[in-house]
Amino acid sequence: MNEGRATMQLKLDEKIICRAIAGINAQRTTDFAYTYSFEHRMYPRIEINRPAGSLARSQVCNAALRVFGEKAVTDEILTTWSNRFLAREGFLSNGRKRPIPHEAQFRIAGYFYYYGIYYFTESVRLLPKEQHASYAQRLAAILLERQEKDRARGGIIHSTIIISHTARATHSWLWLGAKR
Q1: Cβ-contact 119, 60 below 8 angstroms
Q2: Is residue 167 pLDDT above 60, yes or no?
Q3: Cα–Cα dist 129/173, whole Å
Q4: Above pLDDT 90, what percent of the chain?
Q5: Is 34 among the domain residues?
Q6: Is residue 162 part of a domain?
Q7: pTM for this predicted structure
Q8: Which residues pair with residue 28 across a beta bridge?
Q9: 3-state secondary structure of 37
């Protein structure tokens, strides 16, 4: 997130950032799950808004808030949701290859899986470096388990980009962990 801003030398409009952060915070529940949409904030405990339904969303929302200085998103919150993501990844995987969006438990759609993995890596990068290798090893084990017999990972075509980013991040983490 910050890399994109720095690499492209972008000046972000502070008013837009403030509105975006306020919108994310309005959708946050007390347990740092996030509602599916702004309209959903009035129904925080329907399936898609519960922690299992927010498993991928919580990764991106917590990471974004943290990058933009939200003090409520502590290392403890990031760690809790990173561990939860790895422990409950199966909920997301259930929706991974379904042809109808939101037909899986907790109204999970296939694309949740891929962006969840991508933003999981972004969220973990915000934690102390000593923790990266452990998360990388656990994520690598999941990705290898999900690999299909034909060596594909199945699911949506655009997942290739996310999987390759995740593989690069995981490889970097493992390499850095091995160097210690």
Answers
A1: yes
A2: no
A3: 9
A4: 57
A5: no
A6: yes
A7: 0.81
A8: 34
A9: coil
- C-alpha span between 43 and 89 (Å, rounded): 24
* CB contact at 8 A, 82 and 21: no
> C-alpha 59: how far from its chain's center?
3
φ, ψ for residue 28, nearest 5 deg: -80, 135
Residue 22 resides in a domain = no
| 28 domain-assigned | no
Is residue 127 within 8 A of residue 79, CB to CB? The reply is yes
Q: How confident is the model at residue 176 (pLDDT cuts 50, 70, 90)?
A: very low
The whole-angstrom distance between residue 7's C-alpha and the CA centroid of its chain comes to: 22
Based on DSSP, count helices (H) and strands (E) in the chain, helices before strands.
8, 0
Split into its structural domains, the chain has a count of 1
**What token pair was written down for 92?**
């997301």
106 conformational bin, left if phi > 0, alpha if psi -120 to 50, beta if neither: left
For residue 115, the enclosing domain spans: 53-179
pLDDT in tens, 109-150: 988 998 899 999 999 999 999 999 999 999 988 988 887 776
Cα 52 to chain centroid distance, Å, stands at 12
Burial class of 18 by CB neighbour count within 10 A (0 to 12, 13 to 18, 19+): exposed
Identify residue 11 by its one-letter amino acid code.
Answer: K
What does the pLDDT look like over 23-80, one tens digit per residue? Answer: 999 999 999 999 999 999 999 999 999 999 999 999 999 999 999 999 999 999 999 9
